[in-house]
Amino acid sequence: MADFRLMQDLAQDAKTKMVLLVLDGLGGLPQAPGGPTELEAAARPNLNRLARQGTLGQSLPVGYGITPGSGPGHLGLFGYDPLRFDIGRGVLEAFGIGLEMGEKGVAARGNFCTVDSAGLISDRRAGRIATETARPLVEKLATIRLPGVTTEVRPVKEYRFVVVFRGEGLSAEISETDPQRTGAAPLPVRALEAQAARTAELFNQWIAEAQKLLANDRPANMITLRGFSGDPRLPKFGDIFKVRPACVAVYPMYRGVAKLVGMTTIAFEGDTPADEFAAVTRSWNDYDYFFIHIKPTDSRGEDGNFEAKVKVIEAVDQALPALLKLAPDVLVVTCDHSTPAVMKTHSFHPCPVLLWAPATVRADEETSFGERACMRGGLGTFAASEIMPLMMAHANRLAKYGA
Known about the structure:
- This protein is of the alpha/beta class.
- It folds into 2 domains: about 5-85 and about 235-395, 3-Layer(aba) Sandwich (Alkaline Phosphatase, subunit A); about 90-230, Alpha-Beta Plaits.
- About 30% of the residues lie in helices and about 20% in strands.
- The protein contains 14 helices and 13 strands.
- The chain has helices at about 5-10, 40, 45-55, 70-75, 90-95, 130-140, 195-215, 235-240, 250-260, 275-285, 295-300, 305-325, 370-375, 385-395; strands spanning about 20-25, 55-60, 105-115, 120-125, 150-155, 160-165, 220-230, 245-250, 265, 290-295, 330-335, 350-355, 380-385.
- An 8-stranded mixed sheet has the order 9-8-10-1-11-12-2-13, with helices on both faces. Strands 3, 4, 5, 6 and 7 form a 5-stranded antiparallel sheet that branches.
- α5 packs across α9 (about 250-260) and α10 runs parallel beside α12.
């Protein structure tokens, strides 16, 4: 991980700009042995040009063999040790939509799902229903009342929602209800420590009431809950690295993780890479560091749609000249985790990394941006939490250490 005390000691002001472009779930696998991955199959002339001018490597979000969730994957990219700062998805979703947690709040990320007549999950995302379809279902859930706590339920995006319980003596040390597979029933909430027993029972009561309310809805006739968490009160990114950081992201959860570390989220219209790069352009003079998040690479990987994931990568590449026109001093292109379409889920595979910094980079011999090239690249294999110190150094924002 980045040594925060060392970063604070060495960080210095410079008139340089850094961009972290995260294509969520970018890392992939071939559809057949020896074939190209999604990234390698994509037409990517601009990314390949950056690869020729820069250097490549691969990062480990958490560690060898560990499959990361989105929260730890992004915290690592921001320099935080994901094993030290363990944050549930619930608080990220809550922060992402501007929902206040409070000191006594416990939040959970909710998914609408589809269950069959036997109560077994047939679709973990209820067909990825639209936000407009989910909104009236959330309104139903908001009518549930429980003794001793207040509850707040808000839609997030598509099939996702967030629920926050507030009250005395609540604990986030409870288990998730999503079995992470179809053909299984949603799991009951269980206390992971003794003082969480009451919280687990309250959530189980709430889920039971939700099941009754949704029984006649299709396809979203049930819910699962994940990532129970409170506000972890993290050290702030801007204070550690002495930069003015900003986030451009379509999905609320990623705005949430950015807000959690103190980044300013930039509002904009649209949901394409071009829309996101245009938002960066409009705010270019106001910030030193931009975190740009592209979600559909991950979504299409989870859908198992290899070709659709390729097209997302190509759309990013086509829009990239607008970002490069701003002439950032440092640009890193990477992901928070791999999501191979052949696996339809997050995986443990290392993340491809492209570092482009025209004034300071030692270019390696690779000429294209892909997983195989990254395995051979000059950066080698390293912890994702080291990306931020690398960016700072290439942006001339770290002073010399020692005499």
